[in-house]
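User: Some background: our group keeps a shared notebook of sequences we're curious about, and every so often someone picks one and asks for a predicted structure to add to the entry. Today it's my turn. The entry only has the sequence so far, pasted here. Could you supply the structure so I can complete it?
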Amino acid sequence: MQEPDLKGFSNKNLWRMKQFYETYRDFPKLSTLLREISWTNNLMIFSRCKTIEEMEFYLRTVKKENYSKRELERQISASFFERTIIGNSKLSPLVRESNQALTNTFKDSYIFEFLNLPETHSENELQRGLVKQMKDFMLELGKDFLFLGEEYKLQVGNSDFYIDLLFYHRGLQCLVALELKADKFRPEQLGQLNFYLEALDRDVKRPNENPSIGILLCKDKDNEVVEYALSRSLSPTTIAEYKTQLPDKKILQQKLNEFFETDFQAD
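Assistant: Of course. Here's the predicted structure to add to the notebook entry:
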């Protein structure tokens, strides 16, 4: 061996390097990203992701969010890619059309396995758990979200109202109101959230900030009911569901394939 100080060239590592080269050799546009990500994260992405689209998604996300190995492993296990792509198609029309930067910001479902909640739980238990586990919650939301407070008070006329959780999104430069519902989505819940967004924009939002966005987070939802509810909504809102256990990745991949097939046929 001509370079005795060089390490890491075991048969196993050499085989991984060969696989790495063969995986990306036809995608030169990713070469810069690959150099900016640690070998550990690169190894996890190309060994666990099934398609080049999924690999590129995680490469860009790791660069943007600066994920540790543990954070990346959790996101792949939680099917972050599938949930984000599906979620992009289910934003309200106003959200989709108002700002292209909203892409990949919100999900169709959120995973809160770190809360260890029982199947039957209250909204207060959910809220207290999310605040207590804020670090893990922020990983699930995205690192551009800044937590401003729980039970955020709004005064309209002579009445007080309280937003479950209020955030600020640095990239979108807007307030994000998050309302929690420990049951199935009902259309009338959207009216309450729209009211909160109007109050935020009139009384809290600063002149240099963009209109506030709302997330209605429910334990379950009927997609057809959601579509009807959002079709005439003038407020930038999204309705998502949450799960208290890691999702079945195969089911989400099947949904993603169905989404791509439907999208292709529409074109």
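Suggested note for the entry: The domain at 80-266 is CATH 3.40.1350.10 (Trna Endonuclease; Chain: A, domain 1). The first strand starts at residue 109 and ends at 111.
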